[in-house]
């Protein structure tokens, strides 16, 4: 839709041009900004003009630019050891968006909108990513993605701050990941999206879409069924902890998310049992 209140559109070529005035908003792909009225918005600052590389590989990390589109992320060729990489495709497909939207929508824009069904937030939280946030004084601060999104459309992000990138540790990329999603209708917005990442030493469960903010539960090794249920109960024990909107009631979201969490735990336990059986056979 036309944003009739917008008076300026800036295309910064370097960081010094980036300063955001009170009516300014950063522009990623614009797929959300142009989808509804934006009261008080008078200026757009197009981050894609800054020319950040989509991804950068350094020893031990993968850095994904906030301006990397979902389509460009899907085109990245993963290293052979990145067992977690199928989660990228799954989370892209979890968005209620076609490939046409993927070509414009950015990873940073998806996180910055702060919708519970923000599947890039789920992906990055599952991969233990840290957001690099540019502050207006020319500095930066780093926030784990799981703590950047604090609620429905609320972030630990000031109006004049910009997400520059997400840093993913390679150790998380080498882990195994699991995924479960459900929506009330075949092409509906996610009602619950539960993802997990595990190794022999760690099991990390991430609940999004069913909760107002990402909920991350960490365990040393695969928990038993009782320990998982206890952790879910401690973190998400009341209906008020679950998101309530036309895409699902809190009771339904709690029920399907609990089932998904149990299934993912069982997958991790089965993988651990298989690994110890083959280690025993090799002896
Ligand atoms: C058909 C359709 C289906 C969709 N389905 C989903 C869905 O299932 N789940 C979902 O979460 N969204 C969905 N969306 C909304 C939206 O397309 C996505 O969230 C998308 O990833 C937003 O990215 P963008 O780059 O287009 O953001 P923009 O629209 O450019 O920006 C979104 C917001 O983030 C801010 N922003 C952008 N980049 C930065 C940055 N680097 N630093 C700080 N602030 C920034 C902007 O100022 C704005 O407030 C859908 C949209 C459409 C059209």
What does this structure look like?
This protein is 30% helix and 25% strand. The chain is of the alpha+beta class. The chain has 2 domains: 53-172, Uridine Diphospho-n-acetylenolpyruvylglucosamine Reductase, domain 3 (2-Layer Sandwich); 176-278, 2-Layer Sandwich (Enolase-like, domain 1), CATH 3.30.390. The strands form 4 sheets. Strands 4-5-10-6-7 form a 5-stranded antiparallel β-sheet. Strands 11-12-13-14 form a 4-stranded antiparallel β-sheet, sandwiched between helices. β4 (55-58) and β5 (61-65) form a beta hairpin. α2 (86-94) packs antiparallel against α5 and α8 (225-235) packs antiparallel against α9. The protein is globular. The termini are far apart. 39% of the residues are buried. Bound molecules: flavin-adenine dinucleotide. Flavin-adenine dinucleotide is lined by residues 25-33, 35, 47, 66, 95-97, 101, 104-106, 108-110, 112-113, 115, 117-118, 162-163, 189.
Please name the defining characteristics of this protein:
283 residues; alpha+beta; Uridine Diphospho-n-acetylenolpyruvylglucosamine Reductase, domain 3; Enolase-like, domain 1; 2 domains; 5-stranded antiparallel β-sheet; 4-stranded antiparallel β-sheet; 9 helices; 14 strands; binds flavin-adenine dinucleotide
Topology:
Blueprint: E1 8-10, E2 24-27, E3 43-46, E4 55-58, E5 61-65, H1 70-75, H2 86-94, H3 99-102, H4 107-113, H5 119-126, E6 130-134, E7 140-144, H6 145-148, E8 149-151, E9 154-155, E10 162-169, H7 170-173, E11 176-182, E12 192-198, E13 202-208, E14 215-220, H8 225-235, H9 250-282
Parallel strand pairs: 1-3, 2-3
Antiparallel strand pairs: 4-5, 5-10, 6-7, 6-10, 8-9, 11-12, 12-13, 13-14
Helix pairs in contact: 2-5, 8-9
């Amino acid at each position: 839709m036309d944003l009739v209140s917008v008076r300026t559109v800036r295309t910064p070529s370097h960081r010094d041009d980036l300063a955001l005035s009170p009516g300014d908003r950063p522009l990623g792909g614009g797929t959300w900004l142009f989808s509804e009225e934006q009261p008080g918005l008078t200026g757009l600052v197009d981050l894609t003009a800054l020319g950040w590389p989509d991804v950068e590989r350094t020893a031990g990390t993968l850095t994904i630019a906030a301006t990397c589109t979902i389509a460009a992320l899907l085109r990245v060729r993963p290293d052979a050891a990145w067992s977690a990489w199928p989660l990228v495709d799954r989370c892209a497909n979890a968005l209620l968006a076609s490939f046409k939207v993927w070509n414009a929508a950015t990873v940073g824009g998806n996180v910055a909108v702060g919708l519970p069904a923000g599947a890039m937030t789920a992906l990055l939280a599952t991969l233990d990513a840290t957001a690099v946030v540019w502050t207006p004084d020319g500095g930066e601060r780093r926030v784990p993605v799981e703590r950047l999104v604090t609620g429905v459309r609320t972030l630990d992000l000031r109006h004049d701050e910009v997400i520059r990138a997400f840093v993913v540790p390679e150790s998380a990329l080498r882990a195994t990941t699991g995924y479960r999603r459900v929506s009330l209708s075949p092409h509906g917005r996610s009602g619950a999206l539960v993802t997990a990442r595990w190794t022999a030493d760690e099991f990390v469960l991430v609940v999004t879409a069913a909760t107002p903010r990402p909920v991350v539960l960490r365990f040393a090794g695969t928990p038993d069924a009782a320990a998982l249920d206890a952790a879910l109960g401690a973190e998400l024990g009341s209906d008020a902890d679950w998101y309530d909107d036309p895409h699902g009631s809190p009771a339904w979201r709690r029920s399907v998310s609990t089932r998904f969490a149990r299934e993912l735990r069982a997958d991790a336990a089965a993988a651990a049992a298989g690994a110890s059986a083959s280690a025993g056979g090799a002896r």
